[in-house]
Amino acid sequence: MIFSFETWQITLFSLSVGLAATLLILPFGIVLAWFFARKEWPLKSVIETVVLLPLVMPPVSTGLILLKIFGRRSPLGQWLYERGVEIVFNWKGVLIAMSVMSFPLLVRSVRTSFAEVNLRLEQIAATLGASPLRIFFAVTIPLAYKGIVAGALLAFSRALGEFGATILLAGNIPGETQTLSLAIYNFVQLGKDPEAYTLLAITVALAFLFVWCSEWLVRTGKKT
Amino acid sequence: MIGKMMPFMGKSLSVAAIFFVLAWTATRAWADEILVSAAASLTDVLNEIGKGYQSKSKNTVKFNYGPSSGLARQIDEGAPADIFFSADLPQMDNLDKKGRLEPGTRKNLLSNQLVIIVPADSKLAISSPRDLLKADVKRIALAEPSSVPVGVYTSKYLTDEGLSDQFKPKIVPVQDVRATLASVESGNVEAGFVYKTDAAVSKKVKIVYEVPIDKGPRITYPVAIVKDSKRKDAARDFMSYVQSPAAKDAFKKYGFVVLD
């Protein structure tokens, strides 16, 4: 079991979709986190709360909402279906579930790291004639990059552990949408504990590695 | 000689090539891939049946395993499943009422038996439900009697036997069948009620009593083709395969009761 084809397939699938989800949400997360950290506008706290909701809602209910949105019986699902795009029971469903569930963690971490950037440095850049865009890319991002990477790693780890939203939106189809978490669930349901423990060991090892790296980056990032 | 043969060989080769391409596209066009949404407890037996089917048919079959309630929910939202194989009658009834099933395809295919399990090393002398009333049986694990099918069936059975009130103080409601097995395996409870097929997956428990099929509640696993299916011919083909003698033998091997 440990080195079986299925184990590798499931692990590689989880890692690659998790990575794709992280890369997909990274630009949105950075921009949104910057607005949260630097700008004020009416009802800002409402939007901040909505973005954080998937973090605290039962994942199954997030999955149910996603299923409603992307199911063939919704207007969006119908529109996508007519163009040959299937989200439900598809790896794209895994991607969306993982993205939605890990987005709040990314935004929160990146926002904190933007808040820690010394505003004076940005102001100095502005007095020297740098445009806001240039300040963002030449000052803010380089000073916050450790926090951004830490947030991305945390989001990636969350994506790997995703279960509730994934099983509802993407299903649990071995070889197509089955991630590490879904396969563990399946093995536990069948009483195949040794197989479940093997996948559990892989999940724990990966999660430990990424969360540890993320924490390390946050720690060292603060010293500068 | 060879020179004279060449055009002929060339022609027959191209004819053969065209033939192969045609045959290939023909099988491609007729071969379908169907998706069966099935209760997680059917994983092992359906994987075996799926392999058997694919060795005989040009079609391929994929499975989506999960809790029956979630699978029904997905189909209700238009998920592209071709067949629904539920461990639970109400979920199928619900989809039926909403018009999500292909009329006339629904079939109650399997049944299961309630059994009493104890830890494999248990010294207690239990050979009937009444033995569970003895003082040395302190706790009995049962999947949530209000919502989980096996819990619902068991409490109905106990009520029918007139044992419900005496059992009540001993019953520990747990999350599902797996949790029942786990609590019996660990010895935290003296006994539990599960399906026969579930008891079969654990070596750390033993079956001490099987509720006779005619005395127990009617446990049903229904299967049907989904109305939205785009591959109904292939779905029908697989439906008839799961009712074939080969598939029935597989179901029996895993402890299911095949209904006729």
Fraction in helix of chain B = 40-55%
pLDDT under 50 segments of chain B (min length 5)?
Answer: none
For the largest beta-sheet of chain A, the strand count, sense and barrel status come to: none
CATH superfamily of chain A, by name, is MetI-like
Number of strands of chain A: 0
Q: Characterize the largest beta sheet of chain B: strand count, sense, and whether it forms a barrel.
A: 6 strands, mixed
H/E order of the elements of chain B? HEHEHEHEEEHHEHEHEEHHE
Kindly provide the radius of gyration of chain A, computed on alpha-carbon positions and rounded to a whole number of angstroms: 20 Å
Domain module count of chain A: 1
- Roughly how many Å apart are the termini of chain B? 68 Å
Helix/strand structural class of chain B: alpha/beta
The total of helices of chain B stands at 10
CATH architecture of chain A: Orthogonal Bundle
Strand content of chain B: 15-25%
Per CATH, which architecture of the largest domain in chain B?
A: 3-Layer(aba) Sandwich
